[in-house]
Specification:
By secondary structure, the protein is of the alpha+beta class. The chain has 2 helices and 3 strands. It has a 3-stranded mixed beta sheet, with no helix packed on it. Strand 1 (about 10-15) and strand 2 form a beta hairpin.
Amino acid sequence: MKQGMHPEYKDTVIKCACGAEYPTKSTKDSVKVDICAKCHPFFTGKQKFVDAGGRVDKFKKKFNLE
């Protein structure tokens, strides 16, 4: 392998929005994620409802289909 061609592989910490931290190795200095295994509904068994008002909801409301 040629020297100086590949990025440096270093210790880093992945930080989740819930506060969980996972030490790992990466070429990036820091990694931030919105959701992880500690707060994801599939792994916790808790379902979070997010009302985003998507395109289908707007269509149903416009044509009174509900």
